[in-house]
Every structure is written in structure tokens, then in C-alpha cells.
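FORM 12-B: Structure-to-Sequence Request
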């Protein structure tokens, strides 16, 4: 049960954004830029970074939502996402993505723990400065969001079809369009 009075029909961060739209606006704009704006990493790859960080943070809503969003946009779909969330270091990904996920998971633990060697490995695997920057920021933002969602005790749907429906809507219209998703605001 949520720690504050949010609409029970609006799970996870959707209910929190609905509760306080003045904070939702800048947070939503940041996520739209990070996950859907122009970038050499695909939208699916960026969602995968968020999904892996969320799983590592043990946030059910964020892990399932962004896992579904990544699956809808990546070749390999939900099987690839699940394999990556379980074992990101050995998942069937490019060397660049594995290097970026190492940076993301290190950032999740502590930004100060990211090493020059990790950055060099990502560069050596073909990561650009922007990809490295955005990976760190995605990991930091998703750590913030998982603490936000879990710290206020929001509920997560226990229905994979909810996340799949939201994923299809996200692919078509982006984060602002999730307002009309099942359970959306």
C-alpha cells in the first residue's frame, strides 16, 4: 500500500507524477530526452540500461516497465531483456553495450566507483563521449526513480500484459503519451 494518497488505478511513478505534476514535468522531460531523444544508442538500448539498473535496484515497477519498453524496441525482445537483467556481463550483447552496462551498474552503486579503466574499455569497444555521459546519467536517474517509487511504497501491476500495453503506447507516442496507457494518467 502506498505511503501517500495516490490514485490506486495509477501504479508506480505514474501515480506519483499524477500526485505532483509540477515535479513530474521536468522529470518527464529529462526522461524523454535521455531515452527517446537523438542519440547513437538506440531507444531500446537506452531502455535496457534503465531496466538493468532498475532490476539491480530491486524495483519491480521500473524493472518490469522499462524491461517491456526495451523488449518492444530491441531485436531479441523479452528473452534478450530477461537474459541481460539476470546476467548483464554475459548477455548476448555487443562489447560496447556490456561495457556501458558495467559503467551503469557501477554508477548505480556509487558514481565515485566508476573507474578510468571502465571508461577506457567502453571507448575501446566503440562508445562515444555522449554514450558514456548518457549511460551515467540514465543510471543515476533510474536510481533516483527507483528510490522515489519504492520510497513512497507505490504498487506495481502483477500483469505482464499491462507493461506490454504501456510499451506499445510508448513506442508510438513517447513518454508524454503514456498518460493514456492502461492505468496511466
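FORM 12-B RESPONSE
SEQUENCE OUT:
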Amino acid at each position: 500500500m502506498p505511503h501517500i494518497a495516490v490514485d490506486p488505478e495509477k501504479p508506480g511513478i505514474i501515480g506519483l507524477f499524477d500526485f505532483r505534476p509540477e515535479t513530474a514535468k521536468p522529470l518527464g522531460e529529462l526522461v524523454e530526452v535521455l531515452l527517446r531523444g537523438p542519440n547513437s544508442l538506440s531507444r531500446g538500448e537506452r531502455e535496457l540500461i534503465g531496466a538493468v539498473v532498475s532490476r539491480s535496484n530491486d524495483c519491480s515497477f521500473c524493472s518490469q516497465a522499462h524491461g517491456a519498453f526495451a523488449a518492444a524496441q530491441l531485436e531479441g525482445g523479452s528473452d534478450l531483456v530477461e537474459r541481460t537483467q539476470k546476467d548483464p556481463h554475459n548477455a548476448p550483447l555487443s562489447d560496447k553495450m556490456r561495457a556501458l552496462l558495467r559503467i551503469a551498474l557501477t554508477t548505480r552503486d556509487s558514481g565515485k566507483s566508476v573507474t578510468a579503466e571502465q571508461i577506457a574499455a567502453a571507448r575501446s569497444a566503440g562508445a562515444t563521449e555522449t554514450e558514456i555521459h548518457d549511460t551515467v546519467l540514465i543510471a543515476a536517474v533510474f536510481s533516483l526513480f527507483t528510490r522515489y517509487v519504492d520510497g513512497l511504497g507505490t504498487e506495481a501491476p502483477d500483469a505482464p500484459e499491462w507493461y506490454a500495453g504501456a510499451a506499445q503506447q510508448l513506442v508510438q507516442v513517447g513518454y508524454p503519451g503514456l498518460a493514456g496507457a492502461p492505468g496511466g494518467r
